[in-house]
Every structure is written in structure tokens, then in C-alpha cells.
Amino acid sequence: MMACNENSRALRLQRFDEVKATGAEVMLTTCPKCVAHFECLKFEGDPRHDFEILDVVSFLARPVNSR
Description:
By secondary structure, the protein is mainly alpha-helical. Helix content is about 50%, strand content about 10%. The protein has 3 helices and 2 strands. The model has no long low-confidence stretch (mean pLDDT about 85).
């Protein structure tokens, strides 16, 4: 479980930087609660974090022909 404190925020920022470094358009996680925590950080408005955040089930539920 991820708490909302400065230590967890630093870890989330690190994950965001890792995603950005790969050039990914989507960040996937197996944890729906983590999506909420990552979205909170994303809403702070840092332009480096312009990718989508989804849990794996939501990602797999997308229509195959949507691309």
C-alpha cells in the first residue's frame, strides 16, 4: 500500500522519470490504488508527465481496433 508522504512521492517521481525515459505513452500498473496515487502526482501539472496511467485490466479491456 502506498502512503501519501514525501518518501512515496519521491518514488512516484522516480517512476515517472523512468516511464518518460522509455518514451512510453502509457504507464501500466497491476495496482488500481496505485493508479490513483500516480494520477494525484500527475495532476500537479509537470509537463514531463504527459503519458496515460492505467491498471493492466483497464488497458486490456480497450478495444483492439482502437489504434
